[in-house]
Design goal:
12-stranded mixed sheet; disordered N terminus; 2 domains
């Protein structure tokens, strides 16, 4: 599940003038500790998850939950109605199909009311960013603390997640409310992915929208190249043009690699998601059994909870957190591996049961992926140099030693096998409880799993 931006980075890499010395491989560090399954679970909010094909070169249907009746390609329509609270996640990439064809690829999201009464669709929160120029993959520090008003980001998935954590919404891009008459459709999004001025001509767009519908609706995400006016200028497709594509087109291409069925002993391919996932948020209070609190580790020790663990990457917990899919195309992922766009909201009521004060840290980390731990603990690298596996913001809140509530926004960049710096460092008095809240939206272009680690510092 390498991020698409690696294609751009490789294309732009210079050719070395001469061979360089062979770099020494990073050494492994094993940290003996317990890894625990994450309490709680995903809610039941459906997520329209449009991520396949990721690279779109052939126009067509990206994902349709419309009924198949009357459609030229009924197999492209999954016949699933969304009602009440639901989310839309879309992440796609455009590249010039030919060196001399730099026409913008447009992404359209159409919402249809199949009923006999008007339906009101309300945008609760929404954000959509291009890689260029909105959110380039800057080389930035691994750990940046920032204010919610001056966000740090690197890549569109990172920036979308930051907006949601800070409570921002692009009201100029998404209508606050759309009233759809019976049997009619409306455009929720109609945005380009331009490549004309880029070298190489490659760009991507990440989108996340939280919605509330007063009645059942069908949703489709579609891709087509911009129509050209008679005087040679691109224009946005109209609703009628999107509806014609929906009726007449097959699924867009080229198709991604076909996923491996779960349980297969072959080399495993996760595939990319095109379907409706069940679960928008994972809320949990992390406590010990039969206790309202979480006892901190012994001084110098640590334990971790899996974040976005998945099949063949459960880190010894036996827990697969990937959202199940209610409907999907047969050549796409069997589950929403990675939980892109899912918000983790975790409360840690840290209890110091000892008679002396203890200093405790909480960190997000990216250990080496394993399903069953090969050692009694997590494996890291002393000098991680692999591609980035996590790039996105985390929000942490707690009360400091004076009782004042502190909220920190921290943007993290982590590579495979990278230990994490503390997100928070709290001093807990004897026999007292200090509550820490950690929130993150799992960013597109990240590679799971990660862990949330609680560590008690050695006593001086």
């Amino acid at each position: 599940m390498l991020a698409w931006f690696s294609v751009l980075m490789l294309a732009a890499a210079p050719v070395a003038a001469s061979a360089s010395p062979i770099a020494q491989a990073p050494a492994e560090i094993v940290r003996p500790q317990e890894v625990r399954p994450l309490p709680g679970g995903l809610d039941t909010v459906p997520v329209f998850n449009s991520n396949s094909p990721e690279l779109v070169l052939e126009p067509g249907i990206l994902l349709s939950t419309f009924p198949p009746g009357g459609m030229a390609h009924p197999e492209a329509h999954l016949d699933y109605a969304l009602s009440g609270r639901f989310d839309i996640f879309a992440h796609h990439v455009a590249r010039a199909p030919q060196p001399d064809d730099l026409t913008s690829l447009y992404l359209g999201i159409v919402v249809h009311n199949p009923g006999r009464e008007p339906v009101t669709v309300t945008t609760l929160q929404g954000a959509s960013y291009l890689s260029q120029p909105d959110a380039p993959f800057f080389a930035i520090d691994d750990f940046i603390e920032h204010s919610p008003w001056t966000p740090a980001f690197a890549g569109p998935g990172s920036r979308v997640s930051g907006d949601f954590l800070a409570g921002r919404s692009q009201s100029d891009r998404f209508p606050t409310q759309v009233i759809i008459p019976p049997g009619q459709s409306a455009l929720l999004m109609n945005e380009p992915i331009p490549v004309r001025t880029l070298e190489p001509p490659l760009n991507g767009r990440s989108t996340l929208i939280r919605l509330q519908s007063s009645g059942p609706v069908h949703v489709a995400s579609l891709a087509r190249y911009a129509p050209i006016t008679w005087y040679g200028v691109e224009r946005a497709p109209t609703l009628a043009e999107w509806e014609a594509l929906l009726r007449e087109s097959a699924v867009a291409g080229p198709r991604d690699r076909t996923p491996t069925p779960p349980g297969s002993t072959d080399a495993f391919i996760y595939g990319r998601v095109a379907g409706v996932a069940i679960g928008s948020q994972w809320r949990a209070t992390l406590t010990d059994d039969d206790s309202p609190h979480l006892a901190i580790p012994d001084p110098g020790a640590a334990f971790s909870y899996g974040i976005s663990t998945l099949y063949q990457g459960r880190l010894g917990t036996g827990q697969n957190q990937s959202a199940n899919l209610a409907v999907r195309y047969p050549d796409t992922a069997y589950a929403a591996h990675g939980n892109y766009g899912v918000q983790y909201s975790l409360t840690l009521p840290l209890h110091n049961p000892t008679p002396v004060p203890q200093r405790v840290t909480v960190a997000l980390e990216t250990p080496i992926k394993e399903d069953i731990l090969s050692t009694p603990g997590l494996r890291f690298l002393n000098s991680p140099t692999a591609p980035v596996f996590f790039r996105g913001p985390v929000r942490v809140s707690h009360r400091d030693e004076t009782g004042r509530r502190r909220v920190r926004f921290i943007h993290l960049v982590q590579r495979r096998g990278q230990m994490g710096r503390p997100l928070v460092d709290v001093l807990i008095p004897p026999n007292q409880v200090q509550q820490v809240q950690v929130d993150l939206l799992y960013p597109a272009d990240s590679t799971p799993p990660q862990v949330l680690t609680v560590q008690t510092l050695p006593n001086p």
